[in-house]
Specification:
signal, SBP, about 450 residues, D-Maltodextrin-Binding Protein, domain 2, transport, 13 strands, single chain, ABC-type glycerol-3-phosphate transport system substrate-binding protein, Bact_solute-bd_prot1, 4-stranded mixed β-sheet
């Protein structure tokens, strides 16, 4: 656990420089085969025959690719990506700088780089982070790449925006509810299926004197807290925006949902650090045996399999709960984007081809134990995804609602998440004793500022 936590704390930069004795400078052909690892070796050898005659010229032609990636909670992901980047660097004679950045820091660093006119050539990030760069003409159009691969239809929703096609789906991130079934059994209760059940169970198993709390919910920066509050509001019957992007959040049902979420914190069903906890905070709290219920991706599941098998045996993985009126799945997508001010777009496209090599891609996804579910067709019926412990994750990826649903799939949906509008409203109620109606009015005001420019 400590190694994983440490790996997430700071950006990790791998500058990979190879002599690449077998390759010359890469071709600028964007239509490289989807399996270049098998098809490019012969070409590389041919290129080497020419390049060996003029070594100095070969070095002069060497290009650089700057690739920013999010650091995943499952360490194996970045290790595999680092190894793949090294192979690409050597095979195509490209100097690659691979930077793994904690998700909580990625937006700030991206905004600074874009403002300075020096964005990375290639970015792999959560959909809601990437989408905020669509509306201001920062990204490369990628419809040609989408046509090259057999994407699942439900994967393409991450690529689509009103402005066009700018995001390349990489993997689905389904979220589930983790419940300490041993704690629930001790109280002779049923596992929670609704939001009311969640609170009932949390109150029953809450034991602050022994540093155990019913809920591992948080209000700090990140997508987890926003996703929980939005899901709660929607299950109470209110959409935050309608299909045309008109803000519809200010309803009596939304007010009740906001009060309900606030009660988790005011009734001390969460640890003290929950008020400022970020997206990795709830992972750590659950893995340390401090909380009884969290909502998260399979990063927690993968960590338990590796480090906490006893905790995994005492954990029930369940769908997100139903509200008084509706029930929704949860999750998101991870995508590739390329910035149009990047200085090496051709090699960025070439690496995307290299990444989607069938063998590498399939094995990478499997290593993540459900954290990532394939966006390409042809994997669902493999032995790995048909195993009972994995099939549920794949099925959960089919029910994820699009970012900003039911509103338009554009950068506005990303912006309201990145500004933490919903968590800040609940924080204000909990910390400053703000009237819940005023907090809801503030949510409406901020949503209109983004969606309706008011």
């Amino acid at each position: 656990m400590s190694k994983l936590k440490k790996a997430m704390s700071l950006p990790v930069v791998f500058s990979l420089v190879f002599a690449a004795a077998g390759c010359s400078s890469p071709s600028n052909n964007a239509s490289t085969s989807a399996t270049p690892a098998s098809g490019s070796t012969t070409a590389a050898a041919t290129q080497n025959a020419d390049a060996s005659k003029t070594g100095e010229q070969n070095n002069a032609k060497k290009t650089k690719l700057i690739f920013w990636d999010k650091s995943e909670y499952v360490k194996e992901y970045n290790d595999s990506q680092k190894e793949r980047v090294a192979q690409f660097s050597k095979e195509f004679n490209v100097d690659v700088e691979y930077v793994a950045i904690p998700p909580a820091d990625l937006k700030t660093k991206l905004l600074a780089a874009v403002e300075a006119g020096n964005p990375p050539n290639l970015l792999l990030a959560d959909d809601f982070v990437a989408k905020q760069f669509v509306g201001n003409n920062q990204l490369v159009e990628i419809s040609d790449i989408l046509k090259k691969y057999d994407f699942r239809e439900d994967s393409k929703k991450y690529a689509y925006a009103l402005e066009g096609w700018f995001e390349i789906p990489v993997y689905h991130n389904p979220n589930v509810m983790y419940v300490r079934k041993d704690k629930v059994a001790e109280k002779k209760l049923e596992l929670p299926k609704t939001w009311d059940d969640v609170k009932k169970v949390a109150k029953a198993i809450n034991d602050p004197k022994n540093n155990f709390y019913g809920l591992g919910f948080q209000l700090g920066g990140g997508g987890d807290s926003n996703g929980r509050i939005e899901n709660l509001i929607r299950t109470y019957g209110t959409d935050l925006v309608d299909k045309d992007g008109k803000v519809t959040v200010n309803t009596a049902e939304a007010l009740e949902a906001l009060k309900f979420d606030t009660s988790f914190f005011t009734e001390k069903l969460t640890p003290p650090g929950a008020i400022t906890g970020d997206d990795s905070w709830n992972n750590t709290a659950y893995l340390n045996g401090q909380v009884g219920i969290i909502f998260n991706s399979s990063s927690v599941y993968a960590a338990m399999r590796k480090e906490k098998p006893e905790l995994l045996n005492n954990t029930q993985i369940m769908p997100w709960p139903a509200g008084p009126k509706r029930q929704f799945g949860s999750g998101g997508g991870t995508v590739f984007v390329m910035f149009n001010k990047g200085k090496n777009i051709d090699n960025a496209k070439k690496y995307i081809d290299y990444f989607f090599n069938k063998d590498f891609y399939g094995k990478l996804i499997e290593k993540l134990n459900g954290l990532a579910v394939p966006v390409l067709n042809g994997y669902e019926n493999t032995e790995f995804w048909q195993k009972p412990e994995n099939k549920g994750w794949f099925d959960a990826s089919k029910n994820i609602v699009p970012l900003g649903d039911p509103g338009p799939p554009d950068a506005r949906a990303s912006q309201v998440i990145s500004e933490y509008i919903l968590p800040k409203a609940v924080q204000s109620i909990v910390v400053n004793n703000t009237d819940p109606k005023k907090a809801l009015d503030e949510i409406e005001k901020n949503y209109k500022r983004v969606y309706e420019k008011k």
